[in-house]
């Protein structure tokens, strides 16, 4: 069985957008999941800065453009089906708009949901309304 | 700003399915990304075994039911928007149907795509046709 070596995700199969997971290259913490279209992926590859596609704003989202909390990309991996991207990044500041380093700051258990991370920054200091 | 403590992802907002990332609880390796509907999520929460929803087969996918490569779930996290799940798992064998421990075994660079992991098992030994 031979393994293909695609140059980019299969955006057509995925309907134009693929999930992109950002993981802290230094400590392995999963920081966030967002979406990429072909343009976002190619700009990420070319510049080494994480660029996503914002579904709510319907445009490219250069991570950190407002908050300053950019992601320097150390490695880009794609999965077996070529429909998911994993970025190994150096995260500046907090990945999450809620001010946590990771968006995954809540644990769901059978009895309760609880916050398991500490806030790094106050979101109101980062995002000016 | 108060943080909500939802008991499950917002499946309705997400159209019924949310991405679920599985990460090796021991070494932090991101193993795979799949999808969960409410039933898959609730069964995962109740049993402590990862259950996904297979979009191609249009049914619940109890990870490892064919391969034996199950995932024991140590922690379930949800992201800030409550539309992505992160599972911390103990992975038995290989997460990937291609026989690699992780589905993210290929690195995309500006010049080439290359395989950066080693196969654990031969898929033809695992999946009987």
Automatic annotation (TrEMBL), chains A, B:
Q: Which reaction does it catalyse?
A: 1-(5-phospho-beta-D-ribosyl)-5'-AMP + H2O = 1-(5-phospho-beta-D-ribosyl)-5-[(5-phospho-beta-D-ribosylamino)methylideneamino]imidazole-4-carboxamide; 1-(5-phospho-beta-D-ribosyl)-ATP + H2O = 1-(5-phospho-beta-D-ribosyl)-5'-AMP + diphosphate + H(+)
Output the SUPFAM superfamilies linked to this UniProt entry: HisI-like
Which InterPro entries has this protein been placed in? PRA-CH, PRib_AMP_CycHydrolase_dom, PRib_AMP_CycHydrolase_sf
| Binding residues for Zn(2+) | 80, 96, 103
Residues reported to bind Mg(2+)? 79, 81, 83
Q: What is its main location?
A: cytoplasm
Localization terms from the record: Cytoplasm
The alphabetical list of record keywords is:
Amino-acid biosynthesis, Cytoplasm, Histidine biosynthesis, Hydrolase, Magnesium, Metal-binding, Zinc
Gene3D superfamilies per record: Phosphoribosyl-AMP cyclohydrolase
What positions does the domain Phosphoribosyl-AMP cyclohydrolase occupy?
A: 32-105
Which molecular-function annotation in GO is an example for this chain?
magnesium ion binding
User: Domain of life here?
Assistant: Bacteria
List the NCBIfam families hit by this protein, alphabetically: PRK00051.1
Q: What does this protein do?
A: Catalyzes the hydrolysis of the adenine ring of phosphoribosyl-AMP.
User: How does this chain assemble?
Assistant: Homodimer.
**What protein family does this chain belong to?**
In the C-terminal section; belongs to the PRA-PH family. In the N-terminal section; belongs to the PRA-CH family.
Which protein are we looking at?
A: Phosphoribosyl-AMP cyclohydrolase
Question: From which source organism is this entry?
Answer: Bremerella cremea
Lineage summary? Bacteria, Pseudomonadati, Planctomycetota, Planctomycetia, Pirellulales
Q: List the gene name.
A: hisI
């Amino acid at each position: 069985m031979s393994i293909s070596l695609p140059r980019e995700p299969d955006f057509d199969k995925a309907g134009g957008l693929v999930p992109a997971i950002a993981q802290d290259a230094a400590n392995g913490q999963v920081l966030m999941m967002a979406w990429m279209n072909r343009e976002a992926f190619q700009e990420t590859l070319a510049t080494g800065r994480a660029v996503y596609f914002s579904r709510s704003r319907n445009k490219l989202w250069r991570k950190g453009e407002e908050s300053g909390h950019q992601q320097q990309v150390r490695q880009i991996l794609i999965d077996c089906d070529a429909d998911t991207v994993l970025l190994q990044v150096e995260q500046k500041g907090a990945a999450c708009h809620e001010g946590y380093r990771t968006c995954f700051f809540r644990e769901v258990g059978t009895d309760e949901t609880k916050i398991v991370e500490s806030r790094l920054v106050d979101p109101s200091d980062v995002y000016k309304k």
